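User: I'll paste a sequence; please echo it back and then give the predicted structure.

Assistant: Echoing your sequence first, then the prediction.
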Amino acid sequence: MVASSVLKMAASTRPGCPPHPVEVQPESNKRIKKKPAPLSAKQRAALREQLKEVHFLKPDYADNTKINIAGILRKWKAAAGGNRDNEKKKLKDGSYEDLWDDRVRNRDEEDTEETGAALDENSHVPEGILTQETEGRGRPKALCYEDVLLMVVRHPETGEDVLAMAVKLIYYKGADNKPKPTIFFFTATRRLMFCPILVIISLPLADGAFAALNLTSPSQIFQIKNRGPVTCTPFRWKRDWLKRPIFPEDDMKRQTLDAGFEDAIGPKAFRRGAANVANGNAPDAVRDQMMRHDPKWATFNSASINEKVQFDLQNAFLDESLEDGLVTLFTRISIMRDPRASYDMVPEEVWNALPLDPDIAKLVTQRTRLKNGKYRMRGTDQEGEVQRLTKEIKKKRAQRNKALRQEYRKYYFHNRPTWDIERQLAEGAAEELEEDIQPPIQLCIPERAQLAEILCHQPDNLNANDLRSLRTKAAELLSTLCNKKETAKRKVIR
C-alpha cells in the first residue's frame, strides 16, 4: 500500500501528467496480458491446414535483422576496401607511386628495352630488400659450423678420453625464429656407417675449418687428449667458417629409392621415426622437447605417432607369449624393401615400346619448321621462339620420364610378390632357394671403393684398438674423397 500511494503521488505531481490518479499494475498481470489467448480445437485444425501450404514463417524481427546485416556489410566493405590480405596502408607522401605505380613500372620496362642498359644501383635497392636471401639475416637456415661443438671428453666410468659432439638445432621445420634451441649429444658408434662424428671429422678437414692450423689429418684428431685438470677439450672453428653450412644439399629421396624402398623417404619420415623411437624409451617431456612440441596440445599423439600399433594385442588377450620381435618388424618402414629395385628400373624394352607423346611431337614439329634445316639460330628472328620450344620440349620429356618411372615402380612392387609365388610353385617346393646375387657396382675413384668396402663389410668382432685404426682409416678416406670430383659423363666425345 505504501509503494502504491507513493507512485500515485509521483504521477500526480509530475508535469504534463493528467490530474486523475494512475493505477499501478503488478508485473505478473503485465506478463499475463502479453500472452496470446489459447486457441480452440477448431482454430488449431485450421492453423494446421494453413501451415501445410506455408514453408517459411517470417519472424517479427525479420526487418530489424535485415537492417543489421546491411549495416555489417557496409562496415565490412569499408574495412576490406582499405586493407586487403593484411597489407600495409599506402604512404601518402607519394613514395609508393614513385616506386610501385604501374605507369612507372611500364615506363622503366620500355626504357630498358629501348636502351638495353642496366638500371642504376639505386633502382635495385627495393628489389634487393624484397629478394633478400637468408644470408642477409646473418646466417642461413642450414646447420652451420657454429651449431656443432666437437670435443674430447673424459669418460666418467672408464676414464678414457673419447670424442663426443653437441649439435644445436635452431630452425625447426622452416621456422625463422629461435626461442629455445635444442641441443643433442652424439657419441662414436661401433658401426662406422652410422657414425656422425666420423662425418664431422672429415668435412672440416676437407674445408680447412679447424682453428688449429697444424690439425690436418684424422689421426691427429684421435690422438688429442685432455691435459691437466680439465675434462673437456673442444675443437674450435675458424671465425670465417662459423656461418657456413656443413652439409651440402643431398637428394635423400633418390638415395632411398636406390636402396630399394617402396616409397621415397624424406626428412619428415626420419623426424617421425625419431619421435616414435623416443616415445616409450624416454619421458614424454624429453620427447616433446626433442620434437619442439608444446605438451598441452598433445601434438605428438595427433600428428607424429606411428599409425601401426606397436603391441601384440592378440597374444596379450589370449595370454600367450608376446611376439615383440615380429611386431617391431611390422612397424618398420623397411619391411617391404627390395634391394633389386632402384630409382631408374624401367627396362630398355619398355622405353623402346613407348609411343611418342602427341604434345611433344607437336612442339618438335613447330621447332623444326622454325629452324628450317638450320643448326645455329643465334642472331635470327626465330632465336627466342626456338629456345622457348626447346625448354618446353625438355620439360615435358622430363615430366613424362618421371611419371613412367613412378608408374613402373608401383607396378613392380605390386606384382613382384605374385611373380615370386608363381615361380616358387612352378619350380616346386623342394627346389633350393636361389642365391641372392648382389648387382655389381663399379666405383671409379679408388678412395670411394675402399671406403665402401670398410663401411659395408665391417667385421663385428673388433677390439678397441682395431676399431680405432679402422675408424681413422675411414675418416682419412672420407676426407680425401671430399676433395675429389667425378667428371661428367658425356654421350658425345668432343
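Confidence is low (pLDDT under 50) at residues 5-22, 78-86, 103-118, 130-136. Residues 1-33 form one domain.
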